[in-house]
Design brief:
The chain is mainly beta. The chain is built from one helix and nine strands; from the N terminus they run H-E-E-E-E-E-E-E-E-E. It comes from Hibiscus syriacus. InterPro entries: Embryo-specific_ATS3 (IPR010417), PLAT/LH2_dom_sf (IPR036392).
């Protein structure tokens, strides 16, 4: 009897391990940030970042809205891009991915990212990923319409969680 129980223990362990691996946890939702301060002064010792923004397939066909971006690390280093939009180049069209090269202060691991939208068309980003030479890629999943006139996004700096989770 005891031998049968001992043989079943590894199977039970494997079963619960597989069951845990398949759990789906909800992604954090972006939050408005009314008191966000943008550091518009970017220092000369700058680094280069690639930012990839995927527009949701349920977004408007295109947007004429002005889109700005700010991201940074837990130590106060911040990169600010005041205008990413360009209606003439068809940025932020439905189901598209737009890639931008942005220069700004060097950061440690990016742990927050906020978008700012100004306009009337509306725009629904699916995700934003920041790639830096000295940092791991950090992805932020929106999939909601960014409200107009307010910084809107994620801050994982104080949670101890990775922004690319």
């Amino acid at each position: 009897m005891m031998r049968g129980v001992i043989c079943l223990l590894p199977l039970i362990f494997i079963f619960f391990t597989i069951a845990d691996a398949k759990r789906i946890f909800p992604l954090p939702r972006p939050q408005p940030l009314e008191s966000f301060k943008v550091n518009a002064t970017q220092n000369e010792r700058s680094c280069s970042y690639t930012v990839s923004i995927r527009t949701s397939c349920s977004s408007t066909t295109y947007t004429r809205d002005q889109i700005s971006l700010a991201f940074g690390d837990a130590y106060g280093n911040q990169v600010y891009a005041p205008r990413l939009d360009d209606p003439q180049s068809r940025t932020f069209e439905r189901c598209s991915t737009d890639t931008f090269q942005i220069k700004g202060p060097c950061t440690y691991q990016v742990c927050y990212l906020y978008l700012y939208r100004s306009g009337y068309d509306g725009w629904k980003p699916e995700s934003v990923t920041v790639y830096g030479y000295y940092t791991k890629a950090a992805s932020f999943y929106y999939n909601v319409v960014v409200p107009s006139g307010i910084w809107y996004g994620f801050d994982f700096c104080n949670r101890g969680a990775s922004a690319s989770a």
